[in-house]
Amino acid sequence: xxxxxxFITGGARGIGLGxxxxxxxxxxxxxxxxxxxxxxxxxxxxxxxxxxVEAFRLDVRDREAFVETARQTERALGPVELLFNNAGIVPxxxxxxxxxxxxxxxxxxxxxxxxxxxxxxxxxMIERGSGYVVNTASAAGLVTDPNVxxxxxxxxxxxxxxxxxxxxxxxxxxxxxxxxxxxxxGIVRNTRASNAGVALSDDLVPAVEAFLRSGPGIxxxxxxxxxxxxxRSPWIFTGYDVRPHLEKRxxxxxxxxxx
Length: 259
Description:
GO molecular function: oxidoreductase activity, acting on the CH-OH group of donors, NAD or NADP as acceptor
Strand order of the largest sheet: 3-2-1-4-5-6-7
Keywords: Oxidoreductase
CATH superfamily: NAD(P)-binding Rossmann-like Domain
Number of helices: 9
Structural class: alpha/beta
Number of domains: 1
Shape: globular
Largest sheet: 7 strands, parallel
Order of helices and strands: EHEHEHEHEHEHHHEH
Strand content: 5-15%
Protein name: SDR family oxidoreductase
Helix content: 40-55%
Domain Ketoreductase: 4-186
CATH class: Alpha Beta
Number of strands: 7
Organism: Lentzea alba
């Protein structure tokens, strides 16, 4: 991993920054991509004390910008071998308030943003015959909850990652999907600040933020991600919270098959 190049979307904050810090300690050159220019400048300055860093303002929905950012990254740092499709928001809507615009917004960031990262960098990895892709989903991509916008996108990222892993193994490329439970990040606040139109309502924010604060910090998660990559694990978890829910889901499915 040392001396390789990593590209991290949503890399200026939250889990993305935790991953970047863990990589930097191992001598990995880093390209940070994020929509928040202020956070980008702050995080790039921090990481530059440890390793070579390039920072790019990037909206992961913008495919042309993604391609140009990839070109600039590889010109400055070299070929990207480690791709972290991490950028995301936490959208929410009740069923009665769903709209086409809300679906488009939620899926564009949380699913299409991942697809854009893959489609931008994967051909380069295939040509070189090596690479590692880590897509950030959620425990909500394995076990459903009532947040249909978030759950839909995250289930799709899990399925995409599992299928891609099978498809690209013959090219010497590994794929893992990160399925975090609660992690102490500012994702709720960041989603509300993005004017996405799908943010949690005021009455839900305190409980969700308290839930997220109950989990590990971003630096601990960064180390978990790298440990999972070292094991070539298909799934990377940040705790055991999801296990009983997974067991219940599988039991229910198998019970239906036995009828």
